[in-house]
Amino acid sequence: MPRVSAPEFPWLAAGPRRKISKAEQTAEAERRAAMYRAEMLERASLLNRLGYSAKRATARLRANLAWDFEQANGERPSGLSDREIGEIVKTAYQRRANR
Question: Cα–Cα distance between 14 and 39 in angstroms, integer?
């Protein structure tokens, strides 16, 4: 079978890049923030099922975020401040209590 010299992924190809509009950048940022919040909610729910207190779960999630984003100069994505992490944990623990 002949070997193909085309890149495996089209975005790896050199050449001019398509300009991304401000609206597309905003939409992408919102999707990324929603993904991070959903992941934090899943992690908080798991910690709740494992028997962690809300305070301990909040501390653990903050530590995980510090580790996750240490290569990004310690900057967390928008929507993941300490206050917002506390709200996510509160939501996860209330959801579990209401079942």
Answer: 33
CA distance 96 to 99: 6
Cβ burial of 61 (10 Å; 0-12, 13-18, 19+) is buried
Domain ranges, ordered by start, for the chain? 36-99
Contact partners, residue 65, CB within 8 Å, separation at least 6? 76, 80, 85
Token pair of 68, please?
A: 């996750």
In this structure, how many other beta carbons lie within 10 angstroms of the beta carbon of residue 77? Answer: 15
pTM for the complete prediction? 0.74
Residue 47 sits at the vertex; the CA angle it makes with 63 and 85, to the nearest 5 degrees, is 50
Q: How confident is the model at residue 37 (pLDDT cuts 50, 70, 90)?
A: very high
